[in-house]
Write a structure and sequence with these properties.
about 190 residues; Aminopeptidase; seven-stranded mixed sheet; about 35% helix
């Protein structure tokens, strides 16, 4: 019997970092277009990714260029998940620019194609980004999430993030209001 879902067959996404992605011209060339498609579909579907309207192709390309540059400078990390050279998702963190906050970074975004959810790409991307932060000697990794994004908040808690604050009804999406939830992972602790 053929598995109905790739996860049932034990297929796992392949994770690449910024350097690996940039070193493969074919993947790099198609990454911005694939990322744009994923982000557009997710935002149109109401995903809590920071955009009310889908970002433009140029905005996504500029974002990827910025994150890759930051990664090369040691001020960020980018991870992408592929399955058979098809982009499933991406995530990144950026080091805080303020001199007094330089030991810390913000997990800016983790986005997985809706059709690929359930393959473990979101967990794998986030875990790899946490490992990258440890390797970069980040002390505290922070993030914020929309309060109604229960799936993401569960994932972050399961990976060790704790909530440290909440702004009630802070995020405006049309007439709807959602809490903004602040989470942190203290990487100075060695469990």
């Amino acid at each position: 019997m053929t598995p109905s879902h790739p996860h049932e067959a034990g297929v796992r996404p392949v994770l690449l970092d910024a350097a690996e992605l940039a070193s493969d011209p074919d993947l790099w060339e198609g990454c911005a277009e694939s990322a744009h498609r994923i982000l557009t579909d997710l935002v149109r579907g109401g995903a809590a990714l920071g955009w009310v309207e889908p970002p433009s192709r140029d905005e996504v390309a500029a974002l990827l260029d910025h994150v890759v540059s930051a990664a090369r400078a040691g001020d960020g990390a980018l991870r992408v998940a592929y399955l058979d050279r098809r982009l499933l998702g991406l995530g990144y963190w950026l080091r805080y620019a303020r001199p007094t906050h330089r030991p810390h970074a913000d997990l800016e975004k983790v986005a997985v194609d809706a059709a690929a959810q359930g393959l473990g790409a979101g967990r794998a991307l986030t875990a790899a980004l946490i490992a990258d932060a440890r390797a970069a000697e980040i002390e505290v990794l922070t993030l914020d999430a929309r309060g109604d994004n229960a799936h993401a908040l569960r994932l972050y808690r399961s990976l060790g993030f704790t909530e440290y604050g909440r702004l009630p009804d802070f995020v405006a999406v049309g007439e709807r209001r959602h809490d903004k939830v602040f989470c942190m992972l203290d990487l100075r602790r060695r469990d």
